[in-house]
Amino acid sequence: MAAAQAPLDRFFDSNGVQIRYVEQGEGPPVVMLHGYTGTLDRHFISNGVFTTIAKDHRAIAMDLRGHGKSGKPRDPKAYGDELARDVVRLLDHLKIERAHLVGYSLGAILAGRLVSTNPDRLASVAFIGHHPDREISAADAKFVEDSIRELESDLPFRSLAVAIQPTGTPLPSDEELRKAVAPLAAANDVKALAAMWRGGAFLLTSDAALKAARFPMIEIIGTLDPAVSEVEPLRKAHPQIKTLVLDGATHGGETGVLRRPETMAALRELWSGARSR
After folding, report:
1. Span 80-89, average pLDDT
2. Where are the domains of the chain?
3. pLDDT at residue 164, as a whole number
4. Across all residues in the chain, what is the average pLDDT?
């Protein structure tokens, strides 16, 4: 069988920053938001998620500002809510009134923010590998502080590498971490990412906004993802948000939640019960 043709890169101006996106397929629109240090290629195309969705939906994925082929401003003021506003501007650019939103990791946090700021543009929301942030925890604050310091050191992404270690595994040594993060350091603009954290990337949604949402939502996460500890508090606070916890799934990699067939099945079920225009 011939390989699927890669979608063409497209760009649009989002308040002075060039944002790369790709689209393919026809049907209800689905917008995909990747994770921290990732790209639309790494988190949605290489694993086949984008192509699978494009079979019966208008699949759209974007590189977040500061990532991939999108612009990488080094001014902290260019981040914060601008990360979420890029999604709305993309919908405006494509003349899409409402879309299904699939947010992975950092993308899930941005999706949560959009539930608060632009619920009228959402047909459904899937939080994958993370949850909508309702508060900045002490652990979140420490992660940001450590990340900024590390991005300006000879061992960037140390906290990230530690944070995504599967639950129950021993922590690697600094030398092992240095080897593990080398590809990330080579592929990213560390100064832009430091600016992103200074400008704020843990964007909050409110309990009131989640309760007021008139579209279906789901959180999908693996049992080996460190963030799985937040599933029960979310379920108790918001039983209307469906949860799917996949046994043995990690945050990313070959055993990551995005590669599990149950994830796509859950997304299709979510979309089938949602209203889209």
Report:
1. 98
2. 10-135+202-272
3. 78
4. 93
Return the CATH class of domain 10-135+202-272. Answer: alpha beta
59's tokens: 């699949």
